[in-house]
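Protocol step 4 of 5: obtain the predicted structure for the target chain.
Materials: sequence only (see below). No template structures provided, no constraints applied. The aim of this step is simply to have a reference model before the mutagenesis design in step 5. Sequence pasted as it appears in the construct record:
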Amino acid sequence: MITYEKLFIVLKEKGHNKAWLRNNGIHAKTVDKLIHNQNINISTVDQICNLLDCEPADILTFTKDEV
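Step 4 output (structure tokens):
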């Protein structure tokens, strides 16, 4: 499972919030998906990393699903 809690930590550290994401080209529905740890396009991860000048590992966490 991929989660995005780290994204919101990075946003706060850089003085930004969810509205900043929306104001910088991330669609409101996508922000909602991020909040609820739902799937997003890798192009959106790329866009967020460019906006925040960070790596994907800085904004998301992968945890192996239990079988």
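Step 4 remarks: The helical segments are 5-13, 18-23, 28-35, 42-52, 56-59. The beta strands are 2-3, 61-62.
Proceed to step 5.
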